[in-house]
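Limitations
The C-alpha cells in this dataset are predictions for the assembled complex, not deposited experimental models. Users should treat interface geometry with appropriate caution, especially where small molecules or nucleic acid strands are included. An illustrative entry is reproduced here so readers can see what is and is not provided.
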Amino acid sequence: MIAARAKVFCRGLDVWSIGAGLCALLLLAPLLAVFLGLFEPSEFWQHLSGTVLPGYIANTLILVVGVGLLSIAIALPTAWLVATFEFPGRRIWEWALIMPLAVPTFTSAFVYYDVLTFSIPLIVEIRQQFGFGASQWAERIIRYGMLMVLLTSVLYPYLFICLRVAFSREQSLFFEAGRVLGRSSPSIFRKIALPLARPALVAGLSLIVMEVINDYGAVHFFGVPTLTEGIFRSWFGLGDRVAGIRLAGIMICLVFFILALERWQRRRKRFARSQSNTHAHERLKLSGRKLLFAHLLCALPLVVGFIYPLVKLTYWAIIASNEFDFARFLKQVGTSLTLAAAISVFITLLAFFLAYCTRLHGGLLRRFTDSATIGYAIPSVVTGVGVMILLGAFDNSAAASITSLTLSGTVAAICFAYTVRFLTVAYMPALAGVERTCGSLHEVSQSLGQSRWRAMVQLYWPLLKGNLLGGGTLVFIDLMKELPLTLILRPSGFETLATHAFGFAQEGLIYDSAFPSLMIIALGVWGLRLIHRYSESYS
Amino acid sequence: MLRIENICRHFNNVELPAVNEVSFTVGERELVSLVGESGSGKTTLLRLLAGLEKPTSGSIFCGDRCFVGPGKWLPPEKRRVGLVFQGGALFPHMTATQNIGYALGRVSKKIAETTAAELLERVHLPGMGDRYPHELSGGEAQRVALARALAAKPAIILLDEPYSNLDVSTTAKLREEIRSILLAEKMTGLLVTHNPADAQHFGQRIAILRQGTLQQIGTVDEITAQPANEYCRLLIGEP
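Predicted assembly:
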C-alpha cells in the first residue's frame, strides 16, 4: 500500500512540483525554526511569565478587541451605504474611504500623540478629586483609547473593502429576494446582509487583528507593551532569544485560537452564494437629511484617518524644510523604492509560479504551498525571529565557515524575510485568478501538444496580469510601510523611509519625520489608486 | 388581476429597448407562461413586475392597485408579489424553516415553525425544515423557494426559469408539482421560461416575447390555429 502510494507520488514529480516544493519548504523554514526553538531552555522565561507576561497578553487582547469593535462600527455602516444606496459623491467615497490604508500606524501615532496633552487638565482634576490611583487609571484609559482610535482610523479600510465587495457584488440577489418578500431595508440589513457578510467580516477583522498584533511603532510610541513589544524587549533588551521565541509562540496560538473559534461557531452554516445575479440591482436613492447624514458618516473616518494626519504632516514638513537634510532623504527614498519595487516584482513572480504549479499538480503540493504562505498570518516580529534563527544556524554551519559567507544582518536576510511575510498578499489574487479565470487551460494546451512552459507564458500570464498587478501593488505598499522586520534584520546603517521616520520620532525630531512619512503616504495613495482603477475596469 | 400597459424598459448604452411597448393581462387564478429565447426581455419584464427594475414608461396594475404609472412607483416590498428566483435564491445561512419564517414577518417563533412545517408539507417536503440550502437538491430548493414565496401571501406568483439547472426527470416531476400546488392554492401565476414544452405545460395561456416585443398571447390551440407570425408558428404552433 505504502509502496504503491510512494510510486504514485514519485511518478507525479517533475521540475515544476520539485521547484514549487523546495520554494514552499524554504518559506516554511523560519516558522519551523521558531517552533523548534520553543523547547530550548530559557534564562528569563520564569521571571517574565510571573511578572510582565500577563500584562503583555492583556494589552494585546484589549487592543485587538477595542480596534476590532471600533473598526466594525466604522466600516459596517460606511460599506453598507456606498454599496447599497445611490447618492451624489458615492463613487468618490468608495475609494476615498480606502485612502487611510496608505498611512502607516506609526505615522498616525506621531500625529495624534500630542492630543494626549489636552487630557492633562482632566487628569490633574481627577487626581485632586479622587487621588493618585484614580488619575493613573484615567491616564491609562485615555492613552489606550487614543491608541485604539488611531489604529482603527488607519486599519478599518481592510474591513471596509471586504464588506463593500460582499454587500455590492455577492449579496444583491438575496437583497432582492428580501425586498420581494416585503421586508424593509433595516430588516434586510439585520437578518440577511449582516449574517451573509460574516465571511467578509471575519476576513477583514482577521487582517486587522494581525496588523494590531503585529504593530510595533504605534504601541511603542504610546508606551503600551504588547506581545510584539515584549519580544523586542526580551530578545534585544534581556538577550534571551528563547523567551522571545516563546512569546512569538503565544502570539501564533492567539491568532489560531481566534480563527478556530470562528470556524467552530460557524459549524454547518454556509454563507457563500451558489448562484449569480446577472442583473445589476437598483440602488435606493438618498436625499434630504439622510443624504447629509451619509456624507457626515463617510467624512468622519476619512478626516481622522487621512486628512488630519496629511495636513499636520504637511505643516511639520514646512517647519522642518529649512534645516532638513534632503540629500540623505533622497538617498533613503532611492533605497526604499528600489528595495520595495525589486522585492514586490520578485514576490509577484514567485506567487505566479507557485499558483501555476498548484494548478498543475493540486493535491499534496497545493496543501503544502498553502501552508507555506501563512506568513501573513504570522506577525512580522515572529517571522523576523525565525529568519534570524535560520540564518544564524546557516552562518554557524561548517559550509558557511569554509566559504566565510554570512547572511545574518545583510540585505539578503531582509529580502528573504519580506518574501516569507508578504508572499500571501500576491499569492492569493494569483491563485484566485488561476482558479476562476484560467480553469483547465493547461490541459487544453497539453491536448494541443504544447509544453507547460508555453501554457504558462502564453495563456496564464496574459490572463492573470491584472491579478498580479493588484497583488504586486499591495505588496509594494506593505513593504513601504514595513517597520518591525526591518528594525530586527537590517544591517548597520541601513535605512528605509519607515525606519528613517520612526528613528526621527524616537529621537524627538518629530518635524523631521514628516518628509519620509509624507513620501510613504504619497506612494501608498498612488498604489491604492492604481488598484482601484484596475478593479473598476475589471468589474 | 394583473394588467400591463405599454411597458418599456431601455438600458443605458443599448440602442434597442429590452422591453418594448408590452401590454397584456393575467386573469384572477389564471396561470400564464411567458416564453422567449435568451435575451428576449422576459426576465426583465418579470423584474419590472416585481419592482426590481423601474420601467422607462408604461403602467402596471394588480387588481385595483397601481404598481407603476405616470409619476407613481411602488417599491417591491409593498407590492405583495411572490417571486421564485432562478435557482431559488434561498438565504444560505438559514434553514428551510428559517427561510420561510423570514417571509412571515414579525411572528412568534412557534407560529413561524408551525406555518413553515405546513407549507413544507404542501410543497411535499415534510420534515425537511432543519436543512440548510446546500443540503437540499435542486428540485427541493426550488420547492422551498416556492413555499417561501407563498408564505408572504402574495397576490400573484412569478416564477423565473424555475427548472433551469435541473435534470430531465426532476424537471418533469417539479413542473407537475408546481402547477398542482398553484392550482390547489388558487394562485395567479406567471412563469418565465425559454422552453416551449414547459410553457405549454404550465400556462392556460402563453405569451410569446421576441426582442422585447410581445408577438402573441393566447391558448395553445389559438396559437396553433392562428399563429401571429412564422416565429410563433415555429415556437408553439408547429405540430
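Some entries come with short summary sentences. For this one: Residues 2-80+154-236 of chain B form a domain with the Rossmann fold fold (CATH 3.40.50.300).
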